[in-house]
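Weekly modeling sync, notes
Attendees: S.R. (lead), two postdocs, one rotation student

Agenda item 3: backlog of single-chain predictions. S.R. asked that every request posted to the team notebook include the full sequence so nobody has to chase files. The rotation student volunteered to paste the first one in as an example of the format we agreed on. Action items at the bottom.

Example entry:
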Amino acid sequence: MSVFKAAAIQMRSGADPEKNVVDFERMVREAASNGARYLQTPEMTNAIVRDKEARAATFRPVETDLIARTAARLAAELGIHIHIGSNAIAVGDGKLANRALFYDASGNLAATYDKIHMFDVDLDNGESWRESAAYAPGTETVIVELPEAKFGLAVCYDLRFPQLFRAQALAGAEVLTVPAAFTRQTGEAHWHVLLRARAIENGAWVIAAAQGGVHEDGRETYGYSLIVDPWGRVVADIGSAEPGIIYADIDTAASAAARKKIPNLKNARDFSVRLAGGNAGLRAAS
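Predicted structure, as returned to the notebook:
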């Protein structure tokens, strides 16, 4: 069991990584100076670019990505864990990965995670998104084990798939991470309740750094970065779409205590679904 200070950095990334990295480094240094041991940034930290041709000109492989290189340098210099919520990373054949990058306190790339669930939706305000048209989905969830805690990695739309977080909790994750660039419409409706639900269901801390505000490419993101404790209480909420940093002391003993009080991870049972009056059934699991 351990206690450490975590920071969630809320950004409003523009279309130019060279400009975004200036804000990124300034906020990382501020969080580290305030005692944060683990720092999380939002989805699409390196840039938010909707135009297809502009994306092709902007995004690079991880080895030459500006935010990635800066994160590795700062993690080693400051002796902190830096979790880039995600960057758009070129992976060949004209495709990108929506990839989380987790640097340990020595500056090593301890883990990567490619977002599994693609945001392919049509909203009732006219917004339409087809993430799968540009991004290659991941196929496996990832847990990072550090001296401070075990962290489960996810990105944004993954939040709506509780089975992902249940699998991470069953594998021992005490901290679930949901860096995001939620739309304003979906964020207003579901952001807080879904994050609290994932914490309650799994007896885990949830840390969610967000993008917020109107971006250069015209999209609007919700903001409201949150940190939620294993009992579902919001312990830090930035409270707006403005860039900034929130902090919380993460006590992994609180996760163990919540799971002891409500042992649903242990009590879960496999089951099937039978359609009444028929022979056909559906497969399901706990």
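Discussion: group reviewed the output briefly. The chain has seven helices and 18 strands.
Action items: rotation student to repeat for the remaining queue; S.R. to check formatting next week.
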